[in-house]
Amino acid sequence: PNTYYYLIVSATLSFPGFILGESALSLLGLGVQEPVPSWGNMLSEARNIPLISAYPWILTPGVALFMVVFAFNLLGDQLLKR
């Protein structure tokens, strides 16, 4: 009973690590392959600098990835304060 909150906090703080790990592997080409949508696959297209200047919305997956990881970290902090 006393470990319930610690398990929830641990899960909410480790989940962003899983997301970042999967997206990093997909960015390097070691994760899921092209037909499957992944933030890493989408960010691999943003490595071309002239393409970013022509299509700035290609950075949207990076912003979404940052916001999701930050939100899970805030959720874990709030649950820890309870």
Provide structural commentary.
The protein has 82 residues and is mainly α. The chain has one domain. Helix content is 72%, strand content 0%. The chain has four helices and no strands. Helix 1 (4-28) packs antiparallel against helix 4. The radius of gyration is 16 Å and the shape is elongated. The mean pLDDT is 86.
Structural class: mainly alpha
- The proportion of strand residues reads under 5%
Radius of gyration: 16 Å
- How many angstroms does the end-to-end distance come to? 14 Å
Order of SSEs: HHHH
The major beta sheet can be summarized as: none
State the total count of DSSP E strands.
0
> Unreliable segments (pLDDT under 50, ≥5 consecutive)?
none
Overall 3D form:
elongated
The helix content is over 70%
Average pLDDT, all residues: 86
Number of contiguous helices: 4
Structural domain count: 1
